[in-house]
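Q: Could you fold this chain for me?
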Amino acid sequence: MDCSSDESSELSETDIDDYAEKSYVDLKSGKFVARLGSDRFRCPFCPGKKKQDYRYNELLQHAIGVGASNRAAKVKANHQALAKLLKEDHADAAATLPPRQAIALSNPPKPVQDLEVFVWPWIGFKNALAFHNYFKSQRLGKLEWKETKQHVKYVFGWLAKEEDYKSGDPVGRFLSANGYLKTVSELEQEMSSKTDNLIANLTQQITAKSKYLQELECKCNQMNLSLQKVMEESDLLHKRYNEEMRNMQSVAREHTQRVFQETEKLRKQLAEKERSIERINEQVAQTDMERRKLEEERKKR
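A: Sure. Below is the predicted structure, expressed as structure tokens.
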């Protein structure tokens, strides 16, 4: 199961707790393996990541950070389940990891670089050692620089230490003006402290941004509900308008049809009356003609 593949799956924010509980059950049952050894772990939900070997506290920070991020809901749920598994089922691994201060005191035979102090800053301790070893192999190291009188013809190099820093020559004055004396363990502790503070700050920022995102999602949901309500009311008004228009058109058609029928009826009645008047006029004319004819006949007698 990969983080990238989970991000494409649909899961609402309200379902995170339920899905996280289901994922926790799968982890506990062994469906997904998180622990590789007594103090070695892996993230079963990020198989595509380059880092696959975590200590307990590293994986716990990873799980808490992703679980509180603004990633997809399923990704957050899976990592919340992983954090719960580490806290509740693998807390024994945390007990095997002493604090860094205890580590510094509980390992008496320290490496040489933990006992010696070096001039800092450098660009990476490993590269600084390679730089030192290269010039030493070319017989252009510190010892040769002290022995030779022809300094200007060669380039010498070595890893500056306490004696160089505290020397009164130009090298010492340059180092004391531009650097500090620190052991490797001090640098590691300082960098680790900075990393822990950075992780804590990032986790806090992620939590705050996640809360802000949830608030935005809540407002967005409210706006969507309001918009949906407005759209439903608009659809209802549109439907009512269309229905009223159909009713008005139907009434208008019926009225027009009645007017047409009544007009046609009146036209027929008028035509019938005109024909009746013509017949009466014809009868009157016939009667007048017959009357004049009778009068003429009477006069002839």
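A (continued): The first strand starts at residue 117 and ends at 120.
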